[in-house]
Amino acid sequence: MANQYGPTKLQKVETPGWKLDCQRGLMAFAAWWLAALLVSGLLPSMSPNLPISPLWMANSLAYGTVLAIGLKPIPYFGLAALTWNVARGDAPLEILAGTAAFVLLMFFVVEFSGWLGRHVERDRARRLLRVPIIAIMSATLFTLLGI
């Protein structure tokens, strides 16, 4: 006999929602790594003395995903950036600073988008303000940190 009050607590735990979140997270991780590899292969380091690779494509993919989906993929993108920095052989302080800045910027993207949604009435104005300000903040923070 079927339960007329909906699924039981045990059935709710067994639903594939967390599996779907994990799959999406792994896709986010893999997409960020693929974008980082492509950009690093196409555009090598800026100079031999300053081994900064332009990861703007991978980071913009992360920012766009966070804008579209929300906060759920942030840990996966953070883990992707962390493993990327470790694989490159960066110093521990650079790894910590770069990963922390990237994760904080993703939270900034979500909060700033929400703030624009509450304070700017026109949809077109929100979209036109969102992208350049996020790009300026990202470039400024990573430039100031030197990573």
Can you walk through the features of this model?
The protein has 147 residues and is mostly helical. It has one domain. The chain is 76% helix and 0% strand. The chain has six helices and no strands. Helix 4 runs antiparallel to helix 5. The model has no long low-confidence stretch (mean pLDDT 81).
Name the features.
76% helix, 147 residues, mainly alpha
SSE blueprint and pairings:
Layout: H1 9-13, H2 17-42, H3 56-69, H4 74-88, H5 92-119, H6 123-145
Helix pairs in contact: 2-3, 2-4, 3-5, 4-5, 5-6
Could you say how many structural domains there are in total? 1
Amino- and carboxy-terminal Cα gap = 61 Å
DSSP strand content:
under 5%
The backbone outline, from C-alpha atoms, is: globular
Brief rundown of the structure:
With 147 residues, the chain is mostly helical. The chain has helices at 9-13, 17-42, 56-69, 74-88, 92-119, 123-145. Keywords: Membrane, Transmembrane, Transmembrane helix.
